[in-house]
Every structure is written in structure tokens, then in C-alpha cells.
Design brief:
- This protein is an alpha+beta fold and 184 residues long.
- 43% of the residues lie in helices and 22% in strands.
- The protein has two domains: 105 residues, no CATH class; 64 residues, OB fold (Dihydrolipoamide Acetyltransferase, E2P).
């Protein structure tokens, strides 16, 4: 199976073994991920150096798969081109490419966090009736940056379904709202 390594000599043989090791590791990890084995046991191989991200931007590119890709391409580059320069260059290109894929895919993520303080002054509608006084909560629909949210609300006045409201304050994660008077 590895006859091509038996005929190789010196550094080429070492490069070949490095390439086989990198390729085998790459295939095994991706197969385990594909069948869900890593998730089932809580194994996270997509680590990065978060502690260094704030200080050094290039460390955002360092991932486990990037390192494995470097080893794999370094080995095969050295084996086929018989040059440490080409081997290093191919490994570096693979490493940076994988890092960039992870970097840009992380930028596509949306946190979905929102602050209720950002809802002050926003308009919305009553979803579940709000009785007069602070003891009785209802629900309102407010559009925040992350989409339409259904939030708890109280009011000094009784509000019915579909009444238009404006948020005037936030008290312990509950919106304080008042009715918007319709102009005729």
C-alpha cells in the first residue's frame, strides 16, 4: 500500500510519512465529524486562540484543521517537489486558506442579543391585553435590530389587542408602555 514510500530516500521519505500522517488525521477527523461521533462525546476540535485574538489579529486564523492542513500539504509538497521551500509554501497556503474560511464563516454568525434599553422610544402593538397598573403584565410586539420580539409590558392604562404603543421605560426586564393616540 505504501510502496511509493519504500522506494523514496532520505528527506523525500520523511515528507511522504508526514503527508500520510496529515492526510490520515484529516480524513479520520472529518469522518468522525460527519457521523456525529465528536458531537456525541462533546469533543470540540474547532478551537482557536481566543485569548490572543484581541492582541494579535493573525491568531484569528489559527485552527486545528488549519494545522492539520499545513502538515498534510507540507508533507505532500515536500514529497512531490523535494523542496522544503515548496513544502512550506504549500503548507502555509493551506493553513491560511482554512483559517480564512473559518474567519469569514464566523463573521456570518449573528449573535441575536438585544438590549431592552434599545427599545425605549420604539413603537409597537399590544399582543396580549395589558390591564391598568403595574401588577398586571401583558405582551407587546416590538421590532428590534434582531427582528420582531414579543416582550412583557405594563402600563398605567388598560390596553387592548392591536393598540399602538410606544415604550417609555424599562423596569426589571419589563417594558413600560403608553398608548399612542390616533390622530384623525
Amino acid at each position: 500500500m505504501f510502496d511509493f514510500l519504500e522506494v523514496a530516500e532520505g528527506a523525500t521519505k520523511v515528507y511522504g510519512y508526514i503527508g500520510v500522517f496529515g492526510t490520515a488525521t484529516f480524513i479520520i477527523i472529518n469522518l468522525l465529524m460527519l457521523v456525529g461521533f465528536l458531537d456525541e462525546f462533546g469533543i470540540d476540535i474547532d478551537w482557536d486562540l481566543d485569548a490572543l485574538e484581541s492582541a494579535f489579529t493573525p491568531f484569528k486564523l489559527v485552527t486545528f484543521r488549519g494545522i492539520i492542513a499545513f502538515i498534510m500539504f507540507f508533507g505532500w509538497g515536500g514529497y512531490f517537489f523535494e523542496s522544503i521551500i515548496y513544502a512550506s509554501l504549500l503548507g502555509l497556503i493551506a493553513f491560511i486558506s482554512i483559517g480564512l474560511v473559518y474567519y469569514f464563516s464566523r463573521k456570518l454568525q449573528q449573535k441575536g442579543n438585544y438590549s431592552l434599553q434599545n427599545s425605549i422610544g420604539r413603537e409597537g402593538t399590544v399582543y396580549l391585553k395589558i390591564k391598568e397598573g403595574k401588577a398586571s403584565k401583558g405582551k407587546v410586539l416590538i421590532k428590534l435590530s434582531s427582528g420582531l420580539k414579543e416582550l412583557d409590558a405594563i402600563s398605567e392604562e388598560s390596553l387592548e389587542y392591536d393598540d399602538r404603543i410606544v415604550v417609555i421605560d424599562v423596569l426589571e426586564n419589563i417594558l413600560i408602555v403608553k398608548k399612542i393616540e390616533e390622530e384623525n
